[in-house]
Amino acid sequence: MKILEGVTKKFKQFGPTSWAVDNRTAIYIIAILISLYGLLKFNSMPKEQFPDIVVPTISVATVYAGNSPKDIENLVTRPIEKQLKGISGAKVIKIQSTSQADYSLIVVEFDTDVKTDLAKQKVKDAIDKARADLPNDLTKDPDVQEFAFSEMPIMFVNISGDYDGMKLKQYADKMQDKFEELGEITRAEIVGAPEREIQVNVDPYKMTAARVSFMDIENAIARENNDITGGLIEVGNMKRTLKVKGQFTSAMDLQNIVVRSGAQGATVYLRDIAQLIDTVKDKDNYARLDGKNVVTLNIVKRSGENLINAADNIKEVVAEMQKNEELPKDLKVVFTGDQSKQTKTSFNELINTIIIGFILVLLILMFFMGVTNAFFVALSVPLSVFVAFLFLPVADAIVGAPVTLNFIVLFALLFGLGIIVDDAIVVIENTHRIYNNGKVPIIRSAKEAAGEVFIPVLAGTATTLAPFFPLLFWKGLIGKFMIYLPTMLILTLAASLIVAFIFNPVFAVSFMKPEGKEYEKPKKAVFKSKWFIVFIVAGVLMHLGGMHGDIDGIQCVCIK
Question: How many domains does the chain have?
Answer without folding.
Answer: 3
